[in-house]
Amino acid sequence: MKPENLRRMEADRALVERYLEGCFLYDGEPQQTLFKAMRYSLLAGGKRLRPILTLNFARACGGTAEQALPFAAAVEMVHTYSLIHDDLPCMDDDDYRRGALTCHKVYGEATAVLAGDALLTAAFTRLGMAKLPPERVALAVTMLGECAGELGMVGGQMLDLEGEDKVLSEAEVGAIHVRKTGALIGAACTLGVIAAGGTEQQLDAAAQYAAGLGLAFQIRDDMLDVIGDAEKLGKKTGMDEHKNTYARLLSLDECRRRIDTLTEHAVKALDAFDDTAFLRELAQLLADRDS
């Protein structure tokens, strides 16, 4: 990635971090353990990929990062809630996330469930707080709800659970990850367009970019569970042995070819926008990532 785009990514990450740092600081409320658990997971680091996508799709439509910031934070809150719940013993039973103990290992299972519930709810409060035209806010609420809920991410998690210890086809694995991973990435991209008041054509193009990027991201994730470095990843590798993944269905070479093709399709979708250099480079950066 070019130095100026790396600087933009770091500046955007810092902007998101500052915003999130200011969330859930309720000194006068008695449920401080809940707030601590929410902030523990929300502020645990990470790439902040989804909010960065939101900010940059807003820019690509002629808007600003600042006007899209509440939408970007909302997507990250939904993402964090999903990770908290995904790590629970009843789901993936993971002890570490981003190199630190998972929420339920620090605060207990019950508090972790509530922290996830509260982050999901707070995401929609953040959408409502955005100082944007009400029709944009209403569309954003609908979009995030659809992508995060039973037709999107949660639906994908259900399919993932039902598929454990079964042999699934590639189409069935794709159906899981289009929802479990791709849907929220789709929300991140389209919320940026909505925040900036982009066109229907730009909304469609953002969704196409997200579809290619999201599936390429998941295939790379599956590869890294096999060939990745646990220290770089911040979590154990080899955890997907009982699951249907692309790395189990396909050779690693074929996984690489699929990633390249999907990334190319994602980049082509950006023709609907003017300023796309950052988003193009980001797609390639994610395709080649090692963590």
**How would you name the oligomeric state of the polypeptide chains in this document?**
single chain
What is the rounded Rg? 18 Å
| Helix and strand run | HHHHEEHHHHHHHHHHH
Strand order of the largest sheet: 1-2
Instruction: Write down the overall geometry.
Output: globular
| Structural class by helix and strand composition | mainly alpha
Q: Main beta sheet, described?
A: 2 strands, antiparallel
Mean pLDDT rating: 93
Got a strand count? Answer: 2
Strand content: under 5%
Helix count, DSSP H or I runs of 4 or more residues? 15
Instruction: Please mark out the parts with pLDDT under 50 across 5 or more consecutive residues, or reply none.
Output: none
* Helix content bin: over 70%
Question: Cα distance, first to last residue?
Answer: 16 Å
Please tell me about this protein's structure.
This protein has 291 residues and is mostly helical. The protein contains 15 helices and two strands. A two-stranded antiparallel ribbon has the order 1-2. Strand 1 (96-97) and strand 2 form a beta hairpin. Helix 1 crosses helix 3 and helix 4 packs antiparallel against helix 6 (109-129). The longest helix has 28 residues, at 200-227. The mean pLDDT is 93.
